[in-house]
Write a structure and sequence with these properties.
single chain; 276 residues; mainly alpha; three-stranded parallel beta sheet; three-stranded antiparallel beta sheet; 6 strands; 9% strand
């Protein structure tokens, strides 16, 4: 969470703009249903962001020709949409197309994703988004940032809420203490609302396949202050035969994270789960 904002910041870095000039592109798959996305939908969005129209039966070749024209940086935002695609045609064709385009000299592909199902046959460099370094947080918002676990998306939403409402730091802290996750729903869309970005993760096919058991395990982890001890998970949750698989899926979707043999959730996610 916060991946899109970081990707956009990268595109505006002086070194990036100097190297790639007008060959930086941001392709968003936000709002596309993973259960219905097709190879054609994927390629049409890709081509549209590049400013070209697909003509003919080989869109990969057409886009690849464009990408070979100059050094190019392309961000595929919300990649979990097609990584989690349940359409049989999309499952095979999209990763193959990504691998082919990633192999073009001078082309850099950046994928932002809640999932870890990256396209095979590509030498990906995977970067998790850590909490912000303390020195990076504004001192005036330090206490509220600390309450939010230095979660990049939550910090961005809180800062916008304070600016839009002309809240002082003291008022913002009071709003957070009184309302918690409600303060993180200041707008619409995944960049302005924690609940919207949570719904994207919870509605992914892999989480949906878990059924109520997935939501139950997430609620349990959110309830426990120190998180769930992985070694004791099967013994504590005896009614769930696939608890390890459930935890793996929740971790893959960035709903929980592993630390010191415990499964934990960030504070903003904990408040969202508890308030829902």
């Amino acid at each position: 969470m916060g991946k899109s904002s970081i990707a956009k910041a990268i595109l505006n870095e002086p070194l990036i703009t100097e190297k790639f000039a007008d060959q930086c592109f941001f392709v968003t798959y936000d709002g596309v249903d993973p259960s219905t996305i097709t190879f054609e939908t994927f390629m049409t969005r890709f081509a549209g962001a590049l400013g070209i129209e697909i003509a003919g039966a080989d869109p990969v070749r057409q886009i690849s020709t464009f990408l070979r024209s100059a050094s190019t940086l392309v961000v595929l935002d919300n990649a979990e949409t097609f990584e989690e695609a349940s359409s049989s045609s999309a499952l095979g064709a999209i990763p193959q197309a990504i691998a082919e385009m990633a192999d073009i000299p001078g082309v850099i592909l950046v994928l932002t994703s809640r999932s870890r199902r990256n396209a095979p046959n590509v030498q990906w460099i995977t970067k998790d988004i850590p909490p912000l370094d303390l020195s990076s947080a504004q001192a005036v918002f330090f206490r509220i940032y600390q309450h939010a676990n230095f979660h990049p998306l939550s910090i961005n939403i809180l800062a916008n809420a304070a600016q839009q409402n002309s809240w002082s730091p003291a008022t913002l802290l009071k709003r957070w203490n009184d309302q918690h996750s409600k303060v993180l729903d200041g707008g619409k869309g995944k960049l302005q609302s924690l609940s919207d970005t949570m719904q994207l993760s919870l509605s992914s096919p892999s989480v949906q396949d878990l059924g109520e058991d997935g939501h139950r395990v997430l609620a349990i982890i959110a309830f426990l202050p120190q998180g769930l001890n992985e070694d004791l998970a099967s013994d504590l949750l005896t009614s769930l035969s696939q608890v390890d698989t459930i935890c793996d899926v929740l971790c893959m979707q960035s709903l929980v994270y592993r630390q010191d043999n415990f499964l934990k959730v960030l504070t903003p996610i904990r408040h969202y789960v508890q308030d829902s």
